[in-house]
Design a protein that fits this description.
Helix content is about 30%, strand content about 30%. By secondary structure, it is α+β, with helices and mostly antiparallel strands. It folds into two domains: about 80 residues, Phosphorylase Kinase, domain 1, CATH 3.30.200.20; about 140 residues, ATP-grasp fold, B domain (D-amino Acid Aminotransferase, Chain A, domain 1), CATH 3.30.470.20. The structure holds thymidine-5'-phosphate. Thymidine-5'-phosphate binds next to helix 2, strand 12 and strand 14.
Length: about 240
């Protein structure tokens, strides 16, 4: 655990400064929240699992050429990352209707889509992270059109890479949320985390949920799902080495 004062504390992470002004330490907490923090529980070991899962997934997309903030794992719940200014948008990609999209449009969870959906939410807890158009994001100065273009292209590459990586271990990537940031030089890079907190992950044959919906909807013990994802990914890695 770091002893310096956090630069930022979110619901599931803390970010600490380092001696290098261009690098920060991400520390994953054991907390899980849902519905804008209204539902909250602590799960011993969640921070370690998400630290490992997020490192694994960020490295996989980096190998495919997507620039990310990840540098290296530092400890069981900490990773060293490039310091970025977070762009206040959540970029969500959906391969099937689920969650808020299913609810908003009156669709069954898991309904197939005729096209992949990329959507944006404005990161603002007071407003409840509202769904916005890309034009809104530019209009309020959250990002430029050029940055939106970079984020959307990266998000589609992430979908291709992680969709296949998960399919190889019998998991379907239903949807996910990404965040991006600007480095000191203005480069837009993938930031934050990729984990079962930020993706919907369903077993290909049984449709069992391995992600945070286990907690959001009280479906099943949370960490058993996260452990299963990590177990399958690590087993697959062992095979491919
Ligand atoms: P949604 O269907 O609730 O809009 O969620 C879409 C995806 O985004 C899903 O994979 C979960 C993820 N997500 C986050 O990572 N953080 C959030 O605050 C929310 C609401 C969703």
């Amino acid at each position: 655990m770091s002893t310096s004062t956090a630069l930022y504390e979110g619901k599931a992470k803390r970010v600490f400064p380092t001696d290098d002004p261009d690098q920060v330490l991400f520390e994953y907490k054991d907390d899980a929240t849902a519905f804008n923090g209204v539902k909250h529980e602590t799960f011993s070991g969640k921070g370690e699992l998400n630290n490992r899962l997020s490192a694994h997934l960020l490295q996989a997309v980096a190998r495919a050429g997507v620039p990310t903030h990840f540098i290296r794992l530092v400890s069981e719940r900490q990773q060293l990352c490039r310091k970025v200014e977070i762009i206040p948008l959540e970029v969500i990609l959906r391969n099937r209707a689920a969650g808020s999209m299913a609810k908003r449009l009156g669709l069954d969870e898991g309904t197939p889509l005729k096209t992949t959906v990329v959507e944006y939410s404005y990161k603002n807890d007071a407003l409840g992270d509202p769904l916005i158009a890309a034009d809104h994001a530019v209009a309020i100065g959250a990002a430029t059109f050029a940055e939106i273009g970079v984020m959307e292209r990266c998000t589609r590459v992430v979908n291709r890479i992680l969709g296949q990586l998960f399919l190889d271990v019998g998991i379907e990537l239903i949807d996910f949320k990404l965040e991006f940031g600007r480095t000191a030089s203005g480069e837009v890079v993938l930031a934050d985390e990729i984990s079962p907190d930020t993706c919907r992950l369903w077993d290909v044959t049984t449709s069992e949920r391995f992600d945070k919906d286990r907690f959001r909807k009280d479906l099943a013990p949370l960490l058993e799902g996260y452990r299963e994802v990590l177990r399958r990914l690590e087993a697959q890695e062992g095979v491919s080495q």
